[in-house]
Every structure is written in C-alpha cells, then in structure tokens.
Amino acid sequence: MTNWTDAHCHLQDRYLSKDEQVVANVRENLARAFAAGVDRVVVIGTDAQTSREALAISELQDSVEIFATVGLHPHDALDDIAPTLELARSGHPRLVGIGECGLDYYYEHSPRAAQRQAFATQIQLAHELDLALVIHARDAFDDLFDVLGSEGVPPRTVIHCFTGTPEDAEGCLSLGCDISISGVVTFKNAELLREAARLVPLERLHVETDSPFLAPVPHRGTTNEPAFVSVVGEFVAQLRGESVDTVREATARNTARLFKLPAR
C-alpha cells in the first residue's frame, strides 16, 4: 500500500556527518520506508545543528520525497535562537515549517519563562514567513493555549505527537490546530489518547512516527523509523472505524496541505 506520509521524523540521529557511510544509512532507512509504502517524510529540526542536518537530509532526494523544518525545542529554550532564525530565513527550497517548538512541563529541562519566550518567537516567525508551525506540547496545554492566544495561531499549525486528553484535543481543534498521532496511540496505557484520536475530524488528522523514538506496537522497544508510519495509520483506521485507504489518503492530503507540499 503506497502513499503514506510520515508527518514528523528525526533522521538526524542517523545522519552525523556527510561522510558516505552515514549518508548510506539514511538512504537505507528511506529505502525501507519506500518498501513499506511511504513516499513522503518531513524531517524535523530541534535546534540549530539538527535543523541544519534536516535541511541537508532534505537534499538527498530519491524514491521518498524529503522535506524539512527548523526549530528550537522547549528542552533547549535557553540556547541562542538566532542561528535557528537565520536558517529559517535562508530560503531553502525544501524548508516547509518552523518547529518543533512549544512547551514541555513534564521534563522541564528549561525554565518555563524561557520556553514561553522561545515558543512565542517561533510563532511570530511562522507568521512572518508563512510557514507551518509544528508544536510540541506535554503537560502544558493551559500555557500553550495562553501563548497561542497572545501571538495568534498561524493558519497552518499542528500539534505533533499529541498525547493529551480528549478535552485537550478539543481545545487545540477549537484554535484551528491540526493533530498528529504517533505510535503512542498503540500503547496499552493510552486509552485517553485513543479517545482523543477518535474525535479528531478526518480533515485535521495526521500520522507520524517521531522516529527514532516511540516505536509502535508490535515494534515497541526497537528503534523507530518512517517505515512504521503505516502501522500507526492502520491502527488509527481500525480505532476510528474507517478504512485504511481512507486514513492513508486523508492524512497524506492533510500533511501536503499543512506544509504546502508540491502537487504529485
């Protein structure tokens, strides 16, 4: 089954330099994805270095179309944001979004005030450049809604790897955000997330791996990769009582719209 899109992955962990062997590893990963029916991926930046790497990976076009975002993750909110802003304004042809950025009060690796400031700056950047905004939100939905209310929600915004409650999902949807579901939805203790995934309108739904993290059941405990996005999509289809074709086609279409990907 072809034409799955992985709306959010991190291939940088396998892309440590431009040496030939490391590039081959990325290509092997994407070859497995293509064999599993994946033909588009969006590689996500989380700081200046991984954002540069995401842009570099996006130039390795082959069977799978690759696009990139640049951003500063809330864990790194104390870092100098200037290099990320510079990359965002570089005009790279495969750059399609800002983020991931947002708020993480579960780990709280950066002070909350710094997280809010870095998030607000990147919301402003998405507005300025008319790019999609990719949001990370964990245990912080009240503050997330507050910052989005202050800065204004960019027209094309997605909550990636959504792990909130149905009420959190309704709050995101009411602001105009899309919701992206990862392999977490397959985990045994994720019933509230499954309830949330059922209520997302089909036209606002995305699927992702967030690889190399959060491999879905039955691959849990292994290194995640874009090839597994079909596992997430098939689980979501069964959960929602929709056909796999319906979910595959809708999520691919939604991600193309979100990131303004070229027509195929």
Topology (SSEs and partners):
Elements: E1 4-9, H1 20-35, E2 38-43, H2 48-57, E3 65-70, H3 82-88, E4 95-104, H4 112-129, E5 132-138, H5 141-151, E6 157-159, H6 166-174, E7 178-181, H7 191-199, E8 205-207, H8 229-240, H9 244-259
Parallel strand pairs: 1-2, 2-3, 3-4, 4-5, 5-6, 6-7, 7-8
Descriptive overview:
It is a single chain. By secondary structure, this protein is of the alpha/beta class. The chain has one domain (4-259): TIM Barrel. Helices cover 41% and strands 17% of the residues. The protein has nine helices and eight strands. The chain has helices at residues 20-35, 48-57, 82-88, 112-129, 141-151, 166-174, 191-199, 229-240, 244-259; strands spanning 4-9, 38-43, 65-70, 95-104, 132-138, 157-159, 178-181, 205-207. The chain has an eight-stranded parallel sheet. Strand 5 (132-138), helix 5 and strand 6 form a beta-alpha-beta unit. The longest helix has 18 residues, at 112-129. The two termini are 17 Å apart. The model has no long low-confidence stretch (mean pLDDT 95).
Poorly predicted ranges: none
Can you tell me the CATH architecture?
Alpha-Beta Barrel
Number of domains: 1
Query: What's the CATH superfamily, by name?
Result: Metal-dependent hydrolases
What is the succession of H and E elements?
EHEHEHEHEHEHEHEHH
Structural class: alpha/beta
- CATH fold descriptor: TIM Barrel
The outline comes out as globular
Structure, briefly:
By secondary structure, this protein is of the alpha/beta class.
